[in-house]
Amino acid sequence: MNKKDTCEIYCYDEEKVNRIQGDLQAVDIVSVAQMLKAIADENRAKITYALCQDEELCVCDIANIVGATVANASHHLRTLHKQGVVKFRKEGKLAFYSLDDEHIRQIMMIALAHKKEVKVNG
User: Fold this and answer.
1) pLDDT in tens, the chain (122 residues)
2) Are 36 and 29 spatial neighbours (Cβ–Cβ below 8 Å)?
3) Which of 1, 11, 71, 79 counts the most CB atoms within 10 A of its CB?
4) What pTM was computed for the model?
5) CA distance linking residue 50 with residue 35, whole number of Å
6) CA 73, CA 50: separation in Å to the nearest integer?
7) Whole-angstrom distance, CA of residue 84 vs CA of residue 66
């Protein structure tokens, strides 16, 4: 551990700690972590990004966009669906996927903007 990136003495602000611990208990941080973890996989991040670019895509479109088999794309889409990232609808024999809501698009776009900013600012 690098001494420059840690406190040199141990002390904490009890009021802040108690307040934020209380806040943490009031939110569903576990579900948020699971959702972010689902998107954190490279293929699922590609799928999420693809769905940011178009309102709705079928599984075959998604598989071709991300360079995966239909079975592999379906597997990733099931994970994203289970975590509330995407929703789907059936039309005959086709399954169409879209982002669950605008918040998912915002999360992806903010993450991309942040990464671009970090690169520029070094």
Assistant:
1) 567 888 888 999 999 999 999 999 999 999 999 999 999 999 999 999 999 999 999 999 999 999 999 999 999 999 999 999 999 999 999 999 999 999 999 999 999 999 998 888 87
2) no
3) 79
4) 0.87
5) 17
6) 12
7) 20
